[in-house]
Specification:
The structure holds 2 protein chains of 2 kinds. By secondary structure, chain A is mostly helical. Chain A has 18 helices and no strands. By secondary structure, chain B is an alpha+beta fold. The chains are: A mainly alpha, B alpha+beta. Chains A and B meet through helix 5, helix 10, helix 11, helix 12 and helix 13 of A and helix 1, helix 2, strand 7 and strand 9 of B.
Chain lengths: 572, 245
């Protein structure tokens, strides 16, 4: 379907995508569609639905921590088993069923063909299969909440032997279903990744050279490569774990010569590149948004690209910083401290480039821009606190404390919540052909970003006080049961509830604007990239006439031009 | 800085706290600098009718220096942190000072067992004193611990010592600590170990030599009636060796 050669595509674009697709029934248009935009929307809505589940879980277990032993309104009593299941599935859902589908799959599917100027992914049916497997994986995970024995509660890292043997985890059905769900999700993203890489490499509009590809497309492609290269070992590990659980094999069982630490290596060999798999698309979103709303060319496009490559390569050599104290050879910690601190360099450089892009700009504070700037301000906190954990000496103390928890939430919330909101507010007009309400967007922004800090700064302090993770009631630990520390837990919980409540204006704004919002023009933000040359929303087939590319994507405020933007496809 | 949140009761805790301060100061400097510049730019370059945006590619040498200089400076900071981290790591986890006492620490779902030598001063003999969820030690004495697990992965964490080590089933992992302060503190399990992970709490009692010896004499008389909660692989081997010998 994609315009592998654009002249061919041009000729068949006139002859009838639109007429051909008008006859589609609701089912074939929205459920079994091969259109990249519909598949992107399917991923977005599934991700939003899973985020509601993950958000409800965090509400339940944070209430338990603030008011231990009291019934949580809307949930009931949180027992030790329920608490473990809640934190396990909150982590699993937010990473695999929210961050991944929204950042990679929804944005990748929706944006890549539009931003490189073609009509669809090169393998549309593989794309449809990818979503179907993803949906199945989500259903398996949700079903695991209701099986006898309860859902899996052995943490999202699923360390064996706990995860491998039902006599230890006491969830004979929940644990294998969790592994099956995660493995299916990997299959879905492998299929999606094939499409993102192949489409970007082969189906670009005429004239679009490598350095003319918008940063977000590069980021999603590199993230897909990282994912595909790192997930293989974990896939093997997941199958071994499933065999241990269901066929009583002993891959991870030390009683019969298996090695539990092997799983940790396989998991983190995937797990750490995975951090960059979700970080890179978020950095891409921010690049697109700040250039448009500061009317500035991206500072040093090539540097951004090269630092991204460097980050991708180094990310494969840092995994054991999750295992400093797990019983690996202690000399290994020295090697992995060096690689881990090395990766701070390209990431810091990328953030400096983004800040430098704002210099000399003409910054307009629309909602997407507010979220993009908040990403920079907040992600910096996540970045600098990572150094305490990457340095082996301090990690002895901080490993598995709330300091770790607060650190990675200061990276993942900016990535999967703040940057995603920037993307939704920014591309909403293109997705649905209507504008979102600015006032309620700003209410949502402040109501999200301020409480976010009040959740996690207290958790940093609890971590420094030596509070470990995944414990359902700190009253069992005299040193941690003091009123001062309990007050910090209550502040975090109250802030969380406020942050969750402020998502209601977003949901209302989102769904009301979808049907009743002001009609959007094709290019409401006066942006350069190709998706804005298609109608809003783009029809099946995307472009009336396939665009040709004449320049890089960030030519804003070029001297001597009347307009302060210069679309990639404009001849003059 | 860390002692503001939690006291330090071990000989190497101070090293970890100093490393924490070093990293916090270096990273904090870059953090504050970056945030100040970010917010200054946001404020200074907000949209004004009379001031259009500049066209800066960021690819000229004079512009690139704004990225390159901080890049090199951060690399220098990283080197300082790496040296500090390795220094502390080697001291805590790789080197072992002369050992005064040996103990065995065994994690299981969901309790900690501690075995220490009885009056004969030797581990793995009949007069060993074993305790559950209570670890009694002497102040200013260097202990070597042998950490084991009988079921799943646990993690032996004593926050006031800044000490943590995973207990992996099938392995015996050794480490050391030296308490510098008397008192009573928490021991936590720091690795998810199943349903009772949240109640896998223990206490460490650090006492002067005299008080500790009093405790030991009192416990040694009871020791025959005390049964070990679980037998560990290494103990099984020991019994086997005894039988063979």
């Amino acid at each position: 379907m994609a315009n592998l050669s654009s002249s061919e595509a041009l000729s068949h674009s006139d002859s009838g995508h639109d007429t051909h697709h008008e006859k589609m029934s609701f089912w074939s248009k929205y459920v079994f569609s091969t259109d990249h935009k519909v598949i992107g929307m399917q991923y977005l809505f599934t991700g939003m639905f899973m985020a509601l589940i993950g958000g409800f879980m965090v509400y339940a277990f944070r209430m338990q921590l603030a008011f231990p032993g009291e019934a949580v309104p809307g949930f009931g009593n949180v027992s030790a088993g329920a608490y473990n299941a809640l934190v396990t599935n909150h982590g699993t859902i937010m990473i695999f069923w929210v961050a991944m589908p929204v950042l990679i799959a929804a944005l990748g599917n929706f944006l890549i063909p539009l931003m490189i100027g073609c009509d669809d992914m090169v393998f549309p049916k593989i794309n449809r299969l990818s979503y179907q497997i993803f949906l199945l994986s989500a259903l398996v995970l949700i079903a695991s909440f209701f099986v006898p024995g309860g859902p899996f509660g052995g943490a999202w890292t699923a360390y064996p032997p706990l995860s491998a043997q039902a006599k230890f985890n006491l969830t004979p059905l929940g644990a294998p279903m969790w592994v099956i769900a995660v493995a299916l999700e990997f299959v879905a993203f492998l299929l999606g990744g094939i499409n993102f890489i192949t489409t970007t490499m082969n189906a670009r509009a005429k004239g679009m050279k490598m350095y003319d590809i918008p940063i977000i497309v590069w980021m999603i492609v590199i993230a897909s490569i990282l994912f595909m290269a790192s997930v293989g070992p974990l896939m093997a590990g997941a199958i071994m774990l499933l065999f241990d659980q269901t066929l009583s094999t002993n891959f991870f069982n030390p009683e019969y010569g298996g090695d539990p630490v092997l799983w940790q290596h396989l998991f983190w060999f995937f797990g750490h590149p995975e951090v960059y798999v979700v970080l890179l698309p978020a950095m891409g979103i921010v690049a697109e948004v700040i250039t448009v709303f500061a009317r500035k060319k991206l500072f040093a496009y090539k540097t951004v690209l090269y630092t991204t490559f460097a980050t991708g390569v180094i990310s494969f050599f840092v995994w054991a910083h999750h295992q400093f104290i797990s019983g690996i050879d202690p000399r290994m910690a020295n090697v992995f401290t060096i690689t881990t601190l090395l990766i701070s360099v390209p990431i810091a450089e990328m953030l400096f480039v983004y800040i430098a892009t704002l210099y000399g700009g003409s910054i307009q504070f629309k909602t997407p821009m507010l979220f993009a700037l908040a990403f920079l301000a907040e992600f910096l906190i996540g970045g600098v606190t990572g150094i305490h954990l990457g340095a082996s000496g301090t990690d002895i103390y901080f490993h598995d404390t709330y300091f770790v928890l607060a650190h990675f939430h200061y990276t993942f919330v900016p990535i999967a919540i703040i940057a995603v909101f920037a993307a939704i507010y920014y591309w909403f007009p293109k997705m649905f052909g209507r504008m979102m309400n600015e006032f309620w967007g700003k209410v949502h922004f402040w109501g999200t970003v301020i409480p976010f800090n009040f959740i996690f700064i207290p958790l940093f302090m609890l971590g420094m006080a030596g509070q470990h993770r995944r414990i359902y009631n700190y009253n069992h630990f005299p040193d941690l049961a003091t009123p001062e520390l309990q007050n910090l837990r209550i502040i975090a919980t109250v802030a969380l509830v406020i942050m969750l409540l402020f998502q209601i204006p977003f949901l209302v704004n989102f769904f009301v604007s979808m049907f009743k919002g002001k009609k959007a023009e094709a290019n409401p933000w006066k942006a350069n990239t190709l998706e804005w040359t298609a109608p809003s929303p783009p029809p099946h087939g995307n472009f009336k006439v396939f665009p040709e590319v004449y320049r890089p994507p960030y030519e804003y405020s070029v001297p001597g031009r009347k307009e302060d933007y210069w679309p990639q496809d404009s001849k003059d | 800085m860390l002692t503001h949140f939690i006291e330090n009761a071990s000989s190497f805790g101070q090293d970890i706290d100093s490393l924490f301060s070093l990293i916090t100061i270096l990273a904090g400097f870059w953090f504050i600098l970056a945030e100040l510049i970010l917010f200054y730019f946001i404020f200074r370059f907000r949209r004004k009718k009379e001031e259009p945006a500049k066209y800066v590619t960021g690819e000229k040498k004079s512009e690139m220096k704004w990225i390159k200089i901080p890049h090199h400076l951060i690399l220098v900071c990283d080197v300082a942190i790496v040296i500090g981290a390795i220094f502390v790591w080697v001291k805590v986890k790789q080197d072992t000072p002369p050992i005064d006492e040996e103990i065995r620490v065994i994690g299981q779902q969901w309790a900690w067992s501690f075995v220490q030598p009885g009056p004969d001063g030797l581990l793995d003999t009949a007069d060993d004193i074993s305790t559950v969820d209570k670890l009694h030690i002497k102040v200013d004495t260097t202990y070597r611990f042998h950490l084991e697990s009988v079921d799943v992965v646990h993690s032996f964490s004593v926050p006031v010592f800044r000490l943590k080590q995973d207990a992996v089933p099938g392995r015996t992992i050794s480490g050391w600590f030296k308490a510098t302060k008397e008192g009573e503190f928490d021991i936590q399990c720091a690795e998810m170990c199943g349903l009772g992970h949240g109640v896998m709490a223990a206490r460490i009692f650090i006492q002067s030599e005299e008080k500790h010896n009093e405790w030991m004499t009192a416990s040694a008389s009871r020791t025959n009636s005390t049964q070990l909660l679980a037998t560990t692989p290494s103990q099984k081997n020991k019994t086997k060796q005894k039988q063979n010998g």
